[in-house]
Structures are given as C-alpha cells and as structure tokens.
Amino acid sequence: MDLENVKKVINAYADVHAVYLKEAMTAERYYKNETDIMFEPKKSREKAEKDASGELVTHDIASPMRNADNRIPFNFHGLLVNQKASYMFTVPPMIDIGSDASNKALNAFLGDKYPKVCKDLCVEASNKKTGWIHVWKSAEDGAIHYAVVPSEQIQPIWSKSLDRKLMGVLRIYHDIDDEGSEFDVYELWNETECDTYKVPAGRTVMDGLEPYCNFILVEGGKSTQVNTYQHGMGEVPFFAFDNNNVHTDDLKNIKPLIDVYCKVFSGFVNDLEDIQEVIFVLTNYGGADLNEFLSDLKYYKTIKVENDGDGDKSGVSTLTIDLPVEAREKLLTITRKCIFEQGMGIDPDPQNFGNSSGVALKFLYSLLELKSGLMETEFKPSFGRFIRCVCRVLGITIKDDVVLQTWIRTMVQNDQEMSQIAQQSTGIISQETIVRNHPWVENVQDELDKLKEEKAAVQAEQKQLYDPFGNQQLKQKQDPDDPDDPGTDPKKVDS
C-alpha cells in the first residue's frame, strides 16, 4: 500500500483508538486492584502568607484533624471477571468436527495451551470489550501457530454491511531493536498480506512513518528484506471474541459502585485513626503542663483547678465524637449487594451458601449464567471461524462443514444430592449419561472403559465358578493356611 494511504488509514482511526485505549487500560487497572482511590490527590487546605518580598502567597497545609490518608482498594471487578472465566473455561469448549481422525489432528494443533487461551480470551473480552486470536505461519519451521493478542494493540476495520465482516486489522505495538532504538510498529493486515511500518521514538506518523523491513523474501536463491508478507491464510488471520452483544466491558456497570465502596471504607478507617475516643477540655487548670495533668489523673485519679469564686466555670469536661457506624455499615452492605447484582456475579459471603440444595445453588448462579450465556453466544461463531480457518490451512476435513461445540460450566454443587440422583436413575437413563453427570467423574470415556473391564472380569469369574451340574460351588482353597479362604473340600462335593 502507498505510504500516504497508510498514513491516512492510521490517522482515520487514531482518535477512536485513543478513546478505546483509555477505557481498556482503566478496566485492566481495576482488574489488577488499582482503583481510582489509589491515585486521588491528598486533601489539603490553603494558607495565605507573605513571603520575604512582602507578596501574599498561598500554599497547601495538611488539616490538623485529618492526618491519616489510607487508600484501601477492593478488587470486586477482578473477582467478578475471574468468576466468569472459571465458570466458563475451567473446562474449555470441546470441539467435534465429525471424525476421530480429524478431531485428533485438531486437538494436536490446539495443544496443551488451549484451556489457557480460552481463559485469556474471556479475561481480555471482559476487560477490553473484545478478545483477539491471531493465527500465523512461523518463519523458522513453517508451522501454524495461534495466540491471544493484547486487545489494546488491535484496531479492526469492519465492513459497512450488516454481517460486519472484518476487512482488515491495524496492529500497533512498541518495540526495541538490537541497537536499543525504540519505535512503534504498525502492521496493516488484509485477506492476503501484511504490510509493516515503523515510527521512531519522538516522531509522529505524518513525518516519521517509514517501511519496516522485518520479513525475508527468498527468490532465485537470493534473500532480501521486505516490509510485505503474504500470509496465505485466505482471510484476515485475526478473530474477534466480543464480550456481549452491546460491545461493553464488565467494569462499566459497577465502576461507580466500587469507587463508592472504596471511599466510604477508606474514610471510615481514616476517621478511626484520626479522631480520639475522648478529648479533655480543661478550664483554669492549675497544673504546670499537660504531662502533669495526665500523671495526676492516672495516679491520683484527681486534678487541681483554680477557682475565682462564684460563677466560675473552672473544671474538666470531656468531648466525645460519635462516628456514624450504623449508617456506614448499612451503606457498605447495600453497595456490596448492588455490585454483585449489577456485575451479575455471586457474592462469596459464606452465609449465602450453607448446606444448600442443588436448586438453591443453581439459583445463586442464575445471574452469572445469564452473563455467561451472552458471552457464549458471541464466542461460538468466533470459535467456528477460527476452527474452519485452521482446518483449511492444515488440510483437516470438517464433515458437512459442521463444527460442534460442547460448553461445560464449572460450579459449586451438592455432591451427595447429585450422587443420589445418579443412583436412582439407574435403569431409567443410559449408563453413559449417569457417568457423565456424576460429580466424581472427570474423564467419561475412561470411566466407561473401566466399567466394561470390571463387568467383563465379574462375568469371567462367575463362568469359572459355575458348576455344570447346576450347583454353584466354591473353588478349592488356594491357600490352606488362610482362614478367610473358605474353599471347598473335594471329598464333600457330590459327584
């Protein structure tokens, strides 16, 4: 692409990306428990004084009653995001493309990192509205790889049609070369190729953009460095995973509530630290200093005051400051409840669980299930496009072009109740369904194979012990010295 056209594309999306970047970094900061209260300026009051030249100047001084400045953040956003990620992707979606050979080849490509990639996609989408997977061909061995790309690096270019087709991707990231020079890299991807450019540190796109030749092209036995790369994926090799249907992050609904909770709690801690329980008010105290007053009060339980006669109000009184504890507790309780309602999560307060039945536990998960369902409907088409692209490049056959996805939730459940239901379902539903829903079973097929082996072993033992004359007899003792082996005396067996 012409350099001037590249500059126009970059500048066209600069303002939109700047707004998105600010929101994404805020959500990521809250996910790491770095809330706004950690960055607020310290409260102070101004005092006017004259300097040496006689001019009036003002400067900030700390309030004598407000020396404490505790900043206590609460990681509600991180808790809610991790709840959703654990609920949806502790067991990643299982993919079935129609045949054992194809499934085996696809699972070999996805590898051990597949569960982590799914979890990272969920966290990225929850914090930054959209998660992104990138597929590329390695220059070293020519193998196909995939990974999650930080969403703040991606500026998508969508079509104007209703199906919202991805026409291209502008990827922006910071890099350092071998000589220690810093620069920003701009990768422009479309359906066939990738063009790379860079801007040295301290320069702008308009005056510093230049081709970044980081690809090696081999032709006729000669290798040259170019800034254009033919990726051969057949489509833009980036796949968007939206958080929900309205393209918002999970922080938007709960950020004001989290800020209120942090301010109220931190303010309460500051009040307890700053304000004494009892303040003594001394009128016409007759002692030398306050140390003598405290000493007399502690040792003699009395103090001395000066009296000027009738009408004199000399003496000692106390001043106490009552903190609005009940009001703060009520506000914190209501705010916490609103955070989990607006965030559509589960409050981990133990009193919400107890010895709950399966129905009660499912009710606790109702809001989380609604939120997860919205994400699942957005993730399913994206996983389908990702799997089809990988299978096309790797030559893996998809039967009838159907990518079957099985999503499994991970939740707290009543194991005893589930086990009883499984036991009572024997003979009513298939053994495979019972095994699949049993709380102790992790690998369904492995458990079914073990059941078949046990059943075959029991049948073999019964066949070996069977008496063809119609009597079920015990075998002869294998160990005559073992009292627990009843065996059978051959002499007593009827012929």
Written account of the structure:
By secondary structure, the chain is an alpha+beta fold. Helices cover 39% and strands 19% of the residues. Strands 6, 7, 8, 9, 10 and 13 form a six-stranded antiparallel β-sheet that branches. A three-stranded antiparallel β-sheet has the order 5-4-14. A hairpin with a 7-residue loop joins strand 6 and strand 7. Helix 3 packs antiparallel against helix 5. The protein is flat. The C terminus is likely disordered.
In short, what is this structure?
Helices cover 39% and strands 19% of the residues. Strands 6, 7, 8, 9, 10 and 13 form a six-stranded antiparallel sheet that branches. Strands 5-4-14 form a three-stranded antiparallel sheet. The chain has helices spanning 3-12, 14-31, 76-89, 100-110, 114-128, 205-208, 255-274, 290-299, 325-342, 358-364, 366-394, 415-424, 431-437, 444-465; strands at residues 45-50, 56-61, 94-96, 130-137, 144-149, 154-158, 166-176, 182-189, 193-200, 210-211, 215-219, 222-226, 228-230, 238-242, 279-283, 315-319, 404-406.
